[in-house]
Amino acid sequence: MAKELKESSMYIEPKPTTEARLENGEEAASKNFDDDGRVRRTGTLLTASAHIITAVIGSGVLSLAWAIAQLGWVVGPSVLFAFSVITYFTSTLLADSYRSPGPVHGSRNYTYMDVVRSHLGGYKVGLCGLAQYGNLVGVTIGYTITASISMVAVKRSNCFHKEGHGAKCSVSNYPFMAIFAAIQIILSQIPNFHELSWLSIVAAVMSFAYSSIGLALSIAKLAGGGNHVRTSLTGTTVGVDVTGPEKVWRSFQAIGDIAFAYAYSTVLIEIQDTLKSPPPENRVMKKASFVGVSTTTIFYVLCGCLGYAAFGNNAPGNFLTGFGFYEPFWLIDFANVCIAIHLVGAYQVFAQPIFGFVEKLCRRKWPENKFITKEHAAKIPLCGPNCKINLFRLVWRTSYVIVTAVVAMIFPFFNDFLGLIGAASFYPLTVYFPIEMHIAQTKIPKYSFTWIWLKILSWACLVVSLVAAAGSIQGLAHDVKAYKPFKTQ
């Protein structure tokens, strides 16, 4: 893959101009195209915010009660707020890098790699690609596993309700992984991000729904009385809840969970490339980032803190399952259905940049190959009169979804490995590249006050990533030891 990334870093896609069309008397047609000759973008603050919320409020919100339990009332919420501020700040820097050399009147960059190429160049383009696409592949595999777990939870909940709370109710994940993959094969034929807005809006609504249900159940548990749980300023207690080494490793993992719960830089540029202009894309993207990050922070703090208050130091990894699979079973079912639907949309948000990268690379290498380049008109119900099918897109995207599903089936503990992938990509994509590109774009003098504090922020986040990676490796080693292939829950 590194070879392909290096080759693509030397390639700049030709940008047809509207001037060429105007010279041919196609002035009316030019109204349908942007300044780079592409079909006019239609994205708005609403659609960009929906994309961000879909990417940020993942199923990770369900583990925040556990994370707060490891860190306590002081450090836990402080870390949440700290990472929300860092994420918003670096996202504004990245938004300004979308055009180069200037943030408003420069040339567009369509992907994160294009942005790094324009501002930094060299070997850093390949490093960016490895970090970005490695993370995206990992996320799509992890979402396949997480969605199947939610579907299994619905099945088990219904079984417990029908057969009694003492029933075994063992359910396999694998049929549900296959169902999730089948849905993704269909949705993956959506050509690009520009036509994904409706799916992101639905997914964002679902994320609000299951987060709100978890929040409401926590409040109900607290209001019900008899809630004799232990909480503390420092979280889990050494010698009571955990051993000394467990406290350290769990704290590392908790910091990593919180840090990576905010990361959406991997798809920020692709989201920004959907926005119409005027107004300037960077201005709209900053507003969308503020809406997305502030909204998710409110939900994170409420779910994390109220979940910790409800369950104390014994908070489960998924605080929805902490209410049991019992009553009200229908509400737990609905929450898990919402999680599955949300992950259907979130999978596409993270998969589309992968699809676009591979298809762009193949079109460049084989421009005369009709299998790769030709669009075939097709009449498909509910798809509109202008529906087109590309055979290469059909085969390649279907194959990708199948491979991710197979990997998820073989390695069902891959969600823990996802933490390690996140640790490897959080620092470069969310912090390092945005800061370095901002320094290069604005020509900040070396060793100036601004240069120094930006570097300190970058180095501090590097330490956090290394700490989180260490916690993830320890957790992964523990899971591998207990791994039993094709085990039914």
TrEMBL record:
Listed PANTHER family: OS05G0424000 PROTEIN-RELATED
Entries under Pfam families matching the protein: Aa_trans
An example molecular function term from Gene Ontology annotations: amino acid transmembrane transporter activity
The protein, known as: Amino acid transporter transmembrane domain-containing protein
Transmembrane segments: 45-68, 74-95, 171-190, 196-220, 290-311, 331-355, 394-411, 417-435, 456-477
GO cellular component: membrane; plasma membrane
Keyword presence, Chloroplast: no
Origin species: Erythranthe guttata
